[in-house]
Amino acid sequence: MRDSDDPAGGPAGAPTEPFAGPDADPAGLQAFAVLLRRMNGEFSRMAHDFAHSHGLHPTDVQALVEILDGERDGPVTPGLLRERLQLTSGAVTACLDRLERAGHIRRNRDSADRRIVHLHYAPRGREVAREYFRPLAHATDTVRQRFSDAELRAVVRFLAAMNEEMAALRHHPDASPPRR
């Protein structure tokens, strides 16, 4: 590591509670769980703040993320969004109506089958999100500069593998721990 010996990437001497205790492993499961939970919490707070500042619901931001990420694999449809967000058809319609009214998305009918509606992130909505999340992009870039290319490739592999595992758990609920 370039700036410190702290595995969390903070300055030397910064609190490292996930690694506390004489037998704590800074690369152990507990450390990963704590740090991933904290990062997820921060992302959730940012998403809620974005939603609140733009008159949206937190679910609307989840829908925007699905639409944005889905554009790599082809257009997202309301049915696919309903499945991914585990919402009712009525809830998806209300969400899409809010997003469209606010200028974040546009709906287009498929040219071959007019019954199919494709969802797209609207240029205005994309710019609003870019502006809002620009500080996060800068912070991410600042942190990335603290690591070598090899370290960053390892982080990317880890995050990609985590996303795959989490998607597999979601798609195969019998593989996840029992719910009570």
Keywords:
180 residues; mainly alpha; two-stranded antiparallel ribbon; 6 helices
Largest sheet: 2 strands, antiparallel
Strand content: 5-15%
**How is the largest sheet built, in terms of strand order?**
1-2
Label the structural class: mainly alpha
Give the total of beta strands: 2
Which stretches of 5+ consecutive residues score pLDDT under 50? 1-16
Envelope shape: globular
Q: Helix count?
A: 6
Summarize the structure.
This protein has helices at residues 29-53, 58-70, 78-85, 89-101, 123-144, 149-171; strands at 105-109, 117-121. By secondary structure, the chain is mostly helical. Strand 1 (105-109) and strand 2 form a beta hairpin.
Structure description:
This protein has about 180 residues and is mainly alpha-helical. The chain has 6 helices and 2 strands; from the N terminus they run H-H-H-H-E-E-H-H. Helix 1 crosses helix 2, helix 2 packs across helix 4 and helix 3 crosses helix 4. The longest helix has 25 residues. The protein is globular and about 60 Å long. It starts with about 30 loop residues before the first helix and ends in a 9-residue tail after the last helix. The N terminus is likely disordered.
